[in-house]
Design a protein that fits this description.
By secondary structure, this protein is of the alpha/beta class. It contains 20 helices and twelve strands. Helix content is 66%, strand content 9%.
Length: 810
C-alpha cells in the first residue's frame, strides 16, 4: 500500500510535467508566430504606405497632365510655369518613392519616369513655339482680308458681296462666280475726279495682294510642316504620358502583389496558429482526462487503503486500550496484595525473629519492592503512551528533592563504597515552579541506575542555573561500568538494556530510562547521556527554570519531631473536615476531627490540645457559641490556646472575630499554604498573615472546576484526594436532597444553613457557577418560585460536575 501511495504523487507530477511541456511548446510556437506575424504586419504597413505614395504620385501625374494640356492650349506663360513647378514637385515625390520600393528594377523604372517628365517639358516648349508660328500665318491672312476690304471700299466687288460663305461653294460654281465678279469690276463706270488715283491704288493693292498671297502660300506650306511636327509632338506627348502611367502602374502592381503576398502570409500564419492552438487544446484535454482517470483510480484505491488503515488503526487502538486496561487492572490488583505483603513483612521484621527468619523477611521485602517498582513503571509507561500524564505547576524546593532522593537511594546500597557528592547552585535555594513528583521520579531512576551500575567510586550530582536560556541543568556523573557508544541511544528504548548480560547480573525491566526521557520531554526539557565504556557515565537533565515569587518558607522554629502539636478540627462539612485533617497529618500534626462542636467540647474535657480550627456557621452550635463555652466552662481547662476561625461569611469584620476571642481568621476557600502559614505564625509569635477573601466571580476559563487547590492540600497523595472527593460528592448529594425538601417546605432558615454548609467545598474546587447560586440562596431572601428555580438549576449543575469528577476519579 505504501508503494501505491507513492505512485499518486509521481503520476500527478508526470501529468503536470506533460501539461507544462505542452503549454511551453504551444507558448514557444505562438511566440515565434507572433513575432513573424508582427514582422509581416510591419511589412504590410510599409507596403500600404508604398501603395499610398504611388497613388499620390499617380494623382500628381494626372494633375500634371491636365496642367500640361492647359499650358499647350493657353497663350499664358504663367500656365506653363505652373506646369513646370508641378512637374518639379512630381519629380521630388518620385525621388521619395525610391525609398519605399524594394527592387533595383523599380528604381530604374522611376528614373525612366523622371527622364520622360523632362522630355515632356521640352516637348511642350516645342509645341508652344509651333503655335506661335501658326499665329504668324493668321496675321498674313488678316492682312489679305484687310486689303480685300480696301478694294471693296474702292468700288471693287468681291465674292462675299454675292455669297456669304464662298469657301463652302464648289470649285466650278466659285470659278463661274469669280469670273462674273471680275467682269462687273471691269465694267464699273469710272469717276472722272479720281481716275488717276484709282489706277495707282489698284496697282498697289494688287501688288500687295500678290505678295501676301505668295506669303500665305509659303505659310500654308510651312503650316503643313508644322502640323506634321505638331502631330509628332502630340504623339510624343501621348507616348510619354502612356509610358509614365505604364511605369507607375508596374510599380503599383508590384507593390500590390507584394502586399497581397504578405497578407496571404498573415492569413496562413493565423490559420496555422489556430490549428496549433486547437490541436494543443484537444491534446491537453485528452491528457487531462487520461491523467484524471489514472489519479481518480489511484484515489479510489487510496480511499480503500485508507479505510483498511483506519480499520487496522481502530483495531490497534482497541488492542492498545485493552493492553492499557489490562496493565492498569493488573497493576492495581497487584498493588493491594503487594501493600499487604510489604506491610506484614515490616511487621514481621519488627517482631522477634531469628537470623534465618530475618533473612527471609528481608528477601520478601526486596522482592516486594522490586515488584512494586515494576508495577509503578508499567502504570507510568501506559499513562505516558496514552497521553494521560498530567503535569503540575506548583512551587517546590529543588535542593530538598535532590538531597532526599540522593540520600534515600544511597541508603539502599550501604554495602557499596560509593561517595555521594552534591553540588547545587546557591541561586536555586529559592523555590522553583514545576512538577516535583515527576522530577523526583526522573531523578530516582537516573540516580538509582548510577548506584546500581557503580560498584565503588563516586556519584556526583551537579545542579546549575542558566539565566540566559532559563534552564536548569542537572548532571549525574558516576564512575560505574559505562555504556558503549553504539548503545547510548538504545538504553532509552522501552524494555531494552545496553547489554543482554546486564539483565542477568543487575536485573531491571528496561523501562526506567524510557519513562525518564519521556517525562523530561513532557516537562519541556531534555535527557542526554555521555559515556565511555568502563569509565562511567554522565547523564544530563535540562528542565525549564521558573522561580516562585516568594522565597522558601522558614520551617517552624520548634522541633516537631520532639513534640507533635495536637489540633482539634471542627466542621460540619465532612469533605472539608477530612481534607483539613489529611493536610495537618501530612505535616506531622496530631489531629482530632469533629463534625459538630458539642462532641469536640466533650473530648476537650478530658484531653489536652494545642490549637483549634473551627467553622463558624454550623447547626446546633456555631463557632461563636463554641468559643463562649470554651472560655466560660471551667472544667474544659482552657488556657488561651489559639482558636482559628474558618468562615465563608462576608458580613463580619476581623474585629468582630477578635472581640469574640478568635486568634486569626481564615476565609473560605483557602489553600493549605494559607492554613500552615497561619499556624506557623501563631506558634512562632510572628505577624499573622491577613488573607483577603477570594472573589467568587474569578474566571476559571471554560472549566467547570479546578482541583489545583485540593492538589496543593494533598500533593502526591492521589488516593487521599480521591477519598476526599468521594466524601464530598456523597455529602453534597445528601445536602442537596435536604435542600430540595427545605425549598418545598419554604424553610428559609434551613435553606441558608444547608447552602452555607455546602458552599466552602465548591469554592475550594473553584466551581464558581455553583458557588454563586449557593451564595444567592444563602444571602438573599427570595420568593418561593425563585428558590425552586435556583435549586433546580443547582441540581443540574451539580449533576454535570459530579459526572466529570467521577470520570477523573476513575
Amino acid at each position: 500500500m505504501e508503494n501505491k501511495k507513492s505512485y499518486i504523487p509521481i503520476k500527478v507530477f508526470i501529468s503536470y510535467l506533460v501539461l507544462v511541456l505542452l503549454f511551453g511548446s504551444v507558448a514557444w510556437f505562438l511566440y515565434s508566430e507572433n513575432k513573424s506575424f508582427s514582422k509581416n504586419e510591419n511589412r504590410f504597413t510599409e507596403k500600404n504606405s508604398s501603395i499610398l505614395k504611388v497613388s499620390n504620385v499617380l494623382y500628381d501625374l494626372y494633375e500634371t497632365e491636365s496642367m500640361a494640356r492647359i499650358a499647350i492650349q493657353s497663350e499664358s506663360e504663367k500656365d506653363f510655369k505652373d506646369y513646370v513647378a508641378k512637374t518639379i514637385i512630381l519629380k521630388v515625390n518620385i525621388d521619395s518613392l525610391k525609398a519605399v520600393v524594394s527592387t533595383s528594377y523599380q528604381i530604374k523604372l522611376l528614373d525612366s519616369v523622371q527622364v520622360l517628365l523632362s522630355k515632356k517639358i521640352q516637348n511642350i516648349q516645342q509645341l508652344k513655339a509651333i503655335k506661335n508660328k501658326t499665329e504668324d500665318e493668321a496675321a498674313v491672312s488678316n492682312a489679305i482680308s484687310d486689303l480685300t476690304k480696301m478694294e471693296s471700299s474702292m468700288r471693287k466687288l468681291q465674292l462675299e458681296d454675292f455669297v456669304k460663305s464662298p469657301a463652302t461653294m464648289g470649285n466650278y460654281e466659285r470659278n463661274v462666280l469669280q469670273k462674273y465678279v471680275a467682269y462687273l469690276n471691269q465694267n464699273i463706270p469710272d469717276d472722272s475726279t479720281n481716275t488717276l488715283s484709282k489706277k495707282a491704288s489698284d496697282s498697289i493693292i494688287s501688288v500687295s495682294k500678290i505678295l501676301l498671297n505668295q506669303v500665305q502660300k509659303e505659310t500654308a506650306n510651312k503650316k503643313k510642316l508644322l502640323n506634321l511636327e505638331e502631330n509628332k509632338l502630340l504623339q510624343n506627348e501621348l507616348s510619354i504620358s502612356d509610358q509614365l502611367r505604364k511605369v507607375l502602374g508596374i510599380i503599383e502592381r508590384e507593390i500590390i502583389l507584394n502586399t497581397t503576398q504578405i497578407y496571404l502570409g498573415r492569413e496562413a500564419s493565423l490559420k496555422k496558429t489556430n490549428q496549433i492552438v486547437t490541436t494543443a487544446a484537444i491534446i491537453g484535454l485528452l491528457l487531462t482526462l487520461f491523467f484524471l482517470i489514472l489519479i481518480l483510480n489511484d484515489f479510489s484505491k487510496t480511499q480503500s487503503y485508507k479505510k483498511q488503515l483506519e480499520t487496522a488503526s481502530l483495531k490497534a487502538r482497541k488492542l492498545l486500550t485493552s493492553r492499557e486496561q489490562l496493565i492498569s487492572t493488573v497493576s492495581h490488583d497487584l498493588k493491594t496484595p503487594l501493600s499487604t505483603i510489604i506491610g506484614y513483612t515490616e511487621l514481621l521484621s519488627n517482631s522477634d525473629l531469628n537470623t534465618k527468619q530475618l533473612y527471609f523477611t528481608k528477601n520478601i521485602k526486596g522482592s516486594s519492592d522490586y515488584i512494586s517498582k515494576l508495577v509503578q513503571d508499567l502504570l507510568d509507561f501506559t499513562q505516558i503512551e496514552a497521553g494521560k500524564i498530567t503535569i503540575e505547576k506548583i512551587p517546590f524546593s529543588l535542593p530538598d528533592i535532590i538531597n532526599e532522593v540522593g540520600k534515600s537511594i544511597q541508603s539502599v546500597y550501604p554495602q557499596k563504597p560509593i561517595q555521594l557528592l552534591l553540588d547545587i547552585d546557591p541561586t536555586l535555594q529559592q523555590r522553583i515552579v514545576g512538577d516535583p513528583f515527576r522530577l523526583r521520579q526522573i531523578l530516582s531512576n537516573v540516580i538509582g541506575n548510577a548506584f546500581k551500575f557503580t560498584e565503588k567510586g563516586f556519584i556526583k550530582v551537579e545542579v546549575k542555573a542558566n539565566f540566559e536560556t532559563n534552564k536548569i541543568t542537572i548532571q549525574i556523573e558516576d564512575s560505574g561500568i559505562g555504556i558503549a557508544e553504539k548503545n547510548q541511544q538504545l538504553i532509552f528504548e522501552e524494555f531494552t538494556q545496553a547489554d543482554d548480560k546486564i539483565e542477568k547480573k543487575y536485573g531491571g525491566t528496561g523501562l526506567g530510562l524510557t519513562i525518564s526521557k519521556k517525562m523530561t520531554t513532557i516537562l519541556g526539557g531534555t535527557l542526554k547521556v555521555k559515556s565511555v565504556l568502563g569509565k562511567g557515565s554522565v547523564f544530563e537533565i535540562q528542565i525549564p527554570l521558573c522561580y516562585d515569587n516568594t522565597l522558601l518558607e522558614k520551617k517552624l522554629l520548634f522541633d516537631t519531631s520532639k513534640k507533635k502539636l495536637i489540633a482539634i478540627i471542627i466542621d460540619d462539612d465532612q469533605s472539608l473536615l477530612q481534607l483539613t485533617t489529611e493536610v495537618l497529618r501530612q505535616h506531622h500534626y496530631s489531629v482530632f476531627p469533629f463534625n459538630n462542636a458539642p462532641e469536640a467540647l466533650i473530648w476537650i474535657e478530658n484531653n489536652a490540645f494545642d490549637f483549634v480550627i473551627t467553622d463558624i456557621q454550623m447547626p446546633n452550635m456555631d463557632g461563636f457559641i463554641f468559643m463562649k463555652e470554651l472560655q466560660n466552662t471551667l472544667k474544659l481547662n482552657y488556657k488561651n490556646q489559639a482558636v482559628i476561625a474558618v468562615t465563608g461569611r462576608q458580613d463580619l469584620s476581623l474585629e468582630d472575630y477578635k472581640r469574640a476571642g478568635f486568634a486569626p481568621v481564615i476565609r473560605k476557600p483557602f489553600s493549605p499554604k494559607v492554613m500552615l502559614k497561619t499556624i506557623n505564625a501563631i506558634f512562632n509569635k510572628s505577624e499573622i498573615p491577613i488573607i483577603p477573601a477570594k472573589n467568587n466571580n474569578s474566571k476559571n476559563g471554560d472549566k467547570l472546576y479546578s482541583l489545583k487547590v485540593l492538589k496543593a492540600f494533598l500533593p502526591n497523595e492521589k488516593e487521599a484526594l480521591k477519598e476526599v472527593l468521594k466524601v464530598f460528592m456523597t455529602s453534597s448529594r445528601e445536602n442537596l436532597e435536604l435542600l430540595e425538601q427545605a425549598a418545598l417546605d419554604n424553610n428559609y432558615t434551613l435553606i441558608k444553613n444547608i447552602t452555607h454548609k455546602m458552599n466552602p467545598m465548591f469554592k475550594q474546587i473553584e466551581a464558581f457557577d455553583i458557588s454563586n447560586i449557593l451564595d444567592q440562596l444563602e444571602l438573599k431572601d427570595t420568593e418561593s418560585s425563585e428558590i425552586n428555580r435556583a435549586v433546580r438549576d443547582l441540581k443540574n449543575k451539580i449533576s454535570v460536575l459530579f459526572i466529570r469528577l467521577e470520570k477523573e476519579i476513575n
